[in-house]
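Hi V.,

You were right to ask for the full record rather than a summary. Here it is.
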Amino acid sequence: RRVADAWLDAAGLSRDDRSGFRKLPIRELLDAQRAVAMRLGFEAGRLPWQPVIDGTFMTEHPYAALGSGALSDKELIVGTNADEWKLFTLGQRKLLKLDDAGLRQRLHAVLRPLPEAPDWVARAERTYGQQVLGRPHAPFEAWCAFQRDRVFAAPAIALAQSHASAGGRAYLYRFDWRHPLLRDRLGACHGIEVPFVFGALRRGPFLPLFGAMPAAHRASRAMQRSFVQFAAEGNPSPLVREWSATGSRDGAALAIGGESGMTTHTVPEALRYQQELAGRWASWEERAELEGGA
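Predicted structure:
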C-alpha cells in the first residue's frame, strides 16, 4: 500500500480516479515509477516493484509456498555474489571516504522504522565492523557487507532453507571471482556472474575485461558445466563433487570463481543478525500495515 500511495502521489492521481488511470500517458506512468524507485528503493536499498500477493495469481508468499512443500519435487540452485552491493555504489565516490559516523548514519536510515533502531544499529556496527577490521576503507566495506547480506545473501539462504525444510533439494553457491583491477571497488559485484554463466566473456563489452584472463574462463566453464548438468539431471554434484545439497540447511555454499570448495555463505554472526532482523522487520511491517502506518 505504501508503494501504491507513493506512485499515486508521483503521478498526481487519487485512488478512485479511474479515468485518470486510463488516460495517463506511458511516459508519465514510467516517470512516476522511476520517482518511486528513487524515493522508496535506492534510499533504503529495497526494490519497491515486486510481485504482489493478490489472492489470484499469487496466493501466498513464495517462502511460505516452498516451506509447505509446493515445489518439494523440484531442485533449486540459489546463489549470490560476494560483493553484491558494490555495484550500487558506483557513481558515489564519496562513499570510499565514509567514516564511522557516516556508516552509523546510513545504518540508521535503513533501520529507523523499527522502534528499537538504535540497538539494531549498534549491533550492526559491531557485527560488520569486526569483519572489515584493518581493511582499507573499512566503513565502506562494512556498509557494503551489511547491504549485501540484508538484500541478497540472507534472503537467498532463507529461500534455500525453506525449500530444504519441506524435503526439497537446494544447492547454494557464492560467486567470488574478482577482477584484479577492480577488486576493491567492484569485486564480485551484482550481475558480474552473468557473462560467466552464459560463456560470453569474449563478447561485446566483456571482452576488454575478461577476454585475456584464463582464470575467468576456467571459472566460466566450471559454472556452465555445473548448471547444464543441473538442468539435465537436477544435480550438479557429479561435476562438483563437494557441492552438497545439505549446505542449504546450514548456510554453507559452494564458492565459485575464487578458492573452490564449500564455504560459509556469509559470516555466521552476520547471518544470525540478518535472520533476527528479517523476523523483526516482518512483524513490524505486519503490525504497521494493520494500523495503517506502512
